[in-house]
Backbone:
């Protein structure tokens, strides 16, 4: 897996990540960064969010979250999907749903090798490798991907981060907007390690993205509510995490 030369605006992504611990990317920037890595068939990729399974591990009793999950090893030479395994977070990082192994439906085989996903993984490897000091930079990253759909109904808002303001217990996090349908709010908030607010923005368009240095900041997302209560309403995102093996 050889890196392709990237547009000059790569520096515009790495600079705020290095300085502030987070960056918000508009869709046009994300698309320009992904295209050299083979971004294709976005519509087919996004349509797979219609085939997620209900998250039955919600300790708050909610039935508003659907998801699929997969794990990979990612290096300069290869992207390899691992045998399906549970997602685990300690309660130090997820007080609501942590402390147990959570088995979600696996990402579909065709989506797990989809050119849009592979482009995301290749770009992320380039970014996180650039930004990780050489003495802490692994040859191989452990990567998890999560397809999330948060549904909202009249009188029942959907919670993108029901655990509240949090860190994920990894090194780097990407949140990529897939689609919003008939929802309001869903504002991303960023706080420093003293929990002081340092940034906020809302991902609205497909390919809008947030990048987070999980060692340096907390993040959270406000609840989404239907604009028209008579119509289906949801927020679809892809979450990708990178950490040392």
Residues:
């Amino acid at each position: 897996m050889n890196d392709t030369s990237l547009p000059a605006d790569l520096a515009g992504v790495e600079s705020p990540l290095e300085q502030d611990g987070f960056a918000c990317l508009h869709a046009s920037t994300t698309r320009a960064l992904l295209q050299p890595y083979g971004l294709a068939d976005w519509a087919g990729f996004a349509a797979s969010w219609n085939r997620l399974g209900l998250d039955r591990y919600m300790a708050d009793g909610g039935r508003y979250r659907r998801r699929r999950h997969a794990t990979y090893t990612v290096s300069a030479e290869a992207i390899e999907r691992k045998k399906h395994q549970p997602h685990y977070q300690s309660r130090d990082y997820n007080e609501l749903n942590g402390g147990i192994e959570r088995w979600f439906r696996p990402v579909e085989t065709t989506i797990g090798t989809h050119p849009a996903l592979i482009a995301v993984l290749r770009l992320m490897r380039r970014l996180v490798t650039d930004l990780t000091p050489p003495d802490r930079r692994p040859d191989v990253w452990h990567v998890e991907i999560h397809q999330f759909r948060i549904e909202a109904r009249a009188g029942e808002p959907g919670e993108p981060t029901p655990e509240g303001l949090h860190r994920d217990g990894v090194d780097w996090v990407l949140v990529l907007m897939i689609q919003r349908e008939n929802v309001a709010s869903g504002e991303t908030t960023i706080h420093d390690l003293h929990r002081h607010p340092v940034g906020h923005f809302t991902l609205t368009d497909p390919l809008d993205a947030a990048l987070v240095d999980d060692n340096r900041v907390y993040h959270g997302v406000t609840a989404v509510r239907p604009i028209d209560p008579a119509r289906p309403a949801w927020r679809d995102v892809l979450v990708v995490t990178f950490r040392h093996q």
About this structure: The first strand starts at residue 22 and ends at 25. The mean pLDDT is 90. DSSP finds five helices and 15 strands in the chain.
